[in-house]
Amino acid sequence: MVPPTMMEMWTTMGSTIASFMFVWAIIRQYCPYEVRRYFEKYTHRIMGFFYPYIKISIHEFTGDRLKRSEAYAAVEAYLSVNSSKSAKRLKAEMGKDSSNLVLSMDEYERVTDEFHGAKVWWVSSKVVSPTKSMSYYSEQEKRYYRLTFHKRYREIITETYLEHVVREGKEIRVRNRQRKLYTNSPGYKWPSYKQTMWSHIVFEHPATFETMALEPEKKLEIIEDLVTFSKSKEFYARIGKAWKRGYLLYGPPGTGKSTMIAAMANLLNYDVYDLELTAVKDNTELRKLLIETTSKSIIVIEDIDCSLDLTGERLIVFTTNYVEKLDPALIRRGRMDKHIELSYCSFKGFKVLAKNYLKVETHPMFDTIERLMNETKITPADVAENLMPKSSSDDVEKCLSSLIQALEEGKEEEAKKKADELKEDVVKENAD
Ligand SMILES: Nc1ncnc2c1ncn2[C@@H]1O[C@H](COP(=O)(O)OP(=O)(O)OP(=O)(O)O)[C@@H](O)[C@H]1O
Ligand SMILES: [Mg+2]
Residue 19 falls within a domain, yes or no? Predict the structure, then answer.
């Protein structure tokens, strides 16, 4: 079923309405007000009977015209996904971040959607109106989407469907947006017209939890923690706490702290703010920087000698190599809610890396590697470095041998260190 257009209506009922209009014109001219009211009421009813559809328009710009309507953007995103399957004429435009083409319905294209049995029609359209500005005369296009549905679905459409469209549209926008890596790079003098204190580049880091060398249980626990946080807007509001969560990642160099931050950002679709504290002049500047961070972001601080006040959907991740040197007041829960230790590579961790780097899940050389890994410590960074082919002739055996060699060297070095320490102790004891 397609809603009749004005044109179709006129052809099928043209004469009826024409007669009606004629009668109405006479009534308007000769009848007293009360009678006119009476007729007016019935005219609407009769029109409603012939054309029982409701239309809702969502305009691109509203109010002061400067800001694009959020509802329009959400509908656009919703329809870009739902209409590209059914619409025949689509328009492709560069996305806002000019990285990929975004498809949307072309002007005057009509698509249908169905929601709990209610059928609706969306049309993308525009009105061109002349505008007069101070210095020139131009034409302005006002784009809008129009939703049409049968009046018997009024309730479900206005109360549930529209909310569903906006919610899905917003989610699609979040998923599609290109994420950014912000830095408050030191030494850069901001031009006075520039309002923001952060500079940014596109955030493109391939790290995921899947590719991280980490105990599977630990991985799951962290993922669950992150996902719970990102879905807890209502919970935080109820308990009256700012919607933020502090993580402390600690461990020796090369154990994956920075990699994990990238994996977190990729998992939650957040932006990353890399806060370089040494570049911050004073508290006022720090506050200003933090106020300028957007929601859905991770703020990363490598030097953690400060406490921060923030609200909104943010993760704050602190990293350190020396957790034992930190002031306990600084790392108490509330400031840093979750402490995650990243440590030397386990055999399970090695297997993840072997799968990523060499595409092998088992190999006869794994036994030797497992034994050596139990005897000596190696960081995931060192494992990764050894598994990386150094020339085109390097095959799986070559890479695994290189790792075995590194493990054996590490083992020897540790043994030597221990022997030296022992010797020192003996010398000291003798001196006492
Ligand atoms: N757990 C891990 N899983 C997978 N790759 C890892 C892991 N840890 C380290 N790597 C590899 O080693 C490199 C260095 O790791 P990363 O920069 O994350 O270490 P870090 O803990 O941040 O070190 P630092 O304390 O020096 O900042 C990464 O680019 C990655 O390739
Ligand atoms: Mg790091």
Answer: yes
